[in-house]
């Protein structure tokens, strides 16, 4: 069983642990570098990216996570996790930093206060049928994709809300909140490939 970490500093850690466990992975809560060193893949949960960034620096995890990503660790980020994987962000707060790895520009809270939260059925060709029930909560969008990054899903208006690059994957939405497990399956496929 692959050991897959969930960065457990803040956010919806439990939901990811539940899906990973249901898929047969050994889910490991990652709060320190020694725990990170034991995992073959990592999930960055939803939550508040600026808080996760601050805590990651305080816990001495920022540099080890950046090195792990550069070394090819498979990582899946949802919502705040997408922000943390982006090489560039728009509308960060407080000198917010990211781990980076995805050659994209991501805008935080891209849907404004009028539509804080919504759900949509999304076509994700890489996952096949049926469409993904996607839960968006103060969600980011991918504003620009660099040449290495690939869009996995777009909203009807064309905005990119799921992206992949090498062993990295990120979604603006929360599959872990609608019982959707195919993104986590894809992560495990990459981990065990
Ligand atoms: N708005 C949050 C942020 O900027 C993300 C929200 C979420 O993860 N649901 O980090």
TrEMBL record:
It catalyses: L-glutamine + H2O = L-glutamate + NH4(+); aldehydo-D-ribose 5-phosphate + D-glyceraldehyde 3-phosphate + L-glutamine = pyridoxal 5'-phosphate + L-glutamate + phosphate + 3 H2O + H(+). One of its GO terms (molecular function) is glutaminase activity. One of its GO terms (biological process) is L-glutamine catabolic process. PROSITE patterns: GATASE_TYPE_1 (PS51273), PDXT_SNO_1 (PS01236), PDXT_SNO_2 (PS51130). It comes from the Bacteria. Keywords: Glutamine amidotransferase, Hydrolase, Lyase, Pyridoxal phosphate. HAMAP family: PdxT. This is Pyridoxal 5'-phosphate synthase subunit PdxT. Pathway: Cofactor biosynthesis; pyridoxal 5'-phosphate biosynthesis. The gene is pdxT. The keyword Lyase applies. It comes from Microbacterium protaetiae. Its EC number is 4.3.3.6, 3.5.1.2. Coiled coil: none annotated. Catalyzes the hydrolysis of glutamine to glutamate and ammonia as part of the biosynthesis of pyridoxal 5'-phosphate. The resulting ammonia molecule is channeled to the active site of PdxS. Belongs to the glutaminase PdxT/SNO family.
């Amino acid at each position: 069983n692959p050991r897959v970490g969930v960065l457990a500093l803040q956010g919806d850690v439990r939901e990811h642990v539940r899906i990973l466990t249901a898929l047969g992975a050994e889910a490991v809560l990652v709060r320190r570098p020694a725990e990170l060193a034991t995992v073959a893949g990592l999930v960055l949960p939803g939550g508040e990216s600026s808080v996760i960034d601050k805590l990651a620096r305080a816990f001495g995890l920022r540099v080890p996570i950046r090195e792990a990503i550069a070394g090819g660790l498979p990582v899946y980020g949802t919502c705040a996790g997408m922000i943390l994987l982006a090489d560039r962000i728009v509308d960060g707060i407080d000198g917010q930093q990211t781990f980076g790895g995805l050659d994209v520009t991501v805008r935080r809270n891209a849907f404004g206060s009028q539509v804080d939260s919504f759900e949509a059925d999304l076509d994700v060709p890489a996952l096949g049928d049926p469409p993904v029930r996607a839960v968006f909560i103060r969600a980011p969008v991918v504003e620009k994709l660099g040449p290495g990054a690939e869009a996995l899903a777009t909203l009807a208006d064309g905005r990119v809300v799921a992206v992949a690059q090498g062993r990295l994957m990120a979604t603006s939405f929360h599959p872990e909140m609608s019982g959707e497990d195919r993104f986590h399956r894809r992560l495990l496929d990459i981990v065990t490939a």
